[in-house]
Amino acid sequence: MAAVARLQWMWRWRLRAALCLPRGSPGLILGNPVSLRRGLSVSVLSYLAYEFYRKFCSDAVVYANDNVIRDQVLDKADYLYEAGETEKLYHFLQEYKQSDNVEILWRLARALRDLAMLSTTRAEDKKRLIYEALDYAQKALSIDAEHFAVHKWYAICISDVGDYEGTNTKIADSYVIKGHLQKAIELNPYDATSYHLMGLWCWSFASLSWFQRKMGAILFSTPPTSTYEEALQYFLKAEQVAPNFYSQNLLSLGKTYLQLKDRINARFWLTKAKEYPARTEDDKEVQKEATKLLRGL
């Protein structure tokens, strides 16, 4: 009986603690043996329910903390990107390279690619960084194929790798690149960069040399083609979505109008490119090229 009494007291105490009931609550008073057995069963179930609730709340807190940590990482990554701190961003995101978070992975691919494009990056390092960027973009795509930024950066990385694989590979990958850029636009029609990249795709095939067109005809029964007019529409759409968002888009508009023999509009956009605030090496190169082209008008 003493053992039963101790057991009864233990479950009464645990149940009271679980339900936050005051000492001596009627619901915890156990009477005859039948009531005792019934009471113990209820107590056990209640205690298990409490343990489940406690575990669930604990997991929810951990999950919430994970979200907070993720958001902090993304906020810092985006701050460094906007500040043009390419190397700092790369080193920061390297700490999370084992992550399966798509938001981190595509940003890491972008950081690797941006670092590869710096003039201070050695040739052998540039190649390694570009292939590594593609690896992270592929990993992100395998996790989430419905994220616009994943498709955009996967297309960019494929194009970059094509520079090392040769003309045949670059042309062969062209339809793949176009497909991912179109998917990015479909998933997010308000991303100006995706329109700019589609404009570059059209520009590159509008300006193919005779030899490159022949290579395309060998690789495809219907080789990829485009026109400067089509490229112009994408560049203008990018500017419509986000005016002055990117110095390269301003330069691309100026160069496209030059190809279309529209000197007035060419001068307008090249001047905007020349006057664009230079925050990155890319912006500085745009200023130089725009200045050179304006001298020729």
Summary?
It is found in: Cytoplasm, Cytoskeleton. The chain is built from 14 helices and no strands. With 297 residues, it is mainly α.
Outline the structure in words:
It is found in: Cytoplasm, Cytoskeleton. Its main location: cytoplasm. It contains 14 helices and no strands. With 297 residues, it is mainly α. Among the domains are: 71-165, Tetratricopeptide repeat domain (Serine Threonine Protein Phosphatase 5, Tetratricopeptide repeat, Alpha Horseshoe); 246-297, no CATH class. Helix 4 runs parallel beside helix 6, helix 5 packs antiparallel against helix 6 (148-165) and helix 8 (174-187) packs antiparallel against helix 9. The radius of gyration is 31 Å and the shape is globular. The relative contact order is 0.05. Residues 1-42 and 56-65 have low confidence and may be disordered.
In whole angstroms, how far apart are the ends?
105 Å
Helix content: over 70%
Derived structural class: mainly alpha
CATH architecture of one domain: Alpha Horseshoe
CATH superfamily of one domain: Tetratricopeptide repeat domain
Number of strands: 0
Q: How would you spell out the order of helices and strands? A: HHHHHHHHHHHHHH
What would the keywords be for this entry?
14 helices; disordered N terminus; mainly alpha; 297 residues; single chain; Serine Threonine Protein Phosphatase 5, Tetratricopeptide repeat
Topology:
Layout: H1 2-19, H2 33-82, H3 86-94, H4 102-116, H5 123-143, H6 148-165, H7 167-172, H8 174-187, H9 192-206, H10 210-219, H11 228-241, H12 247-259, H13 263-274, H14 281-295
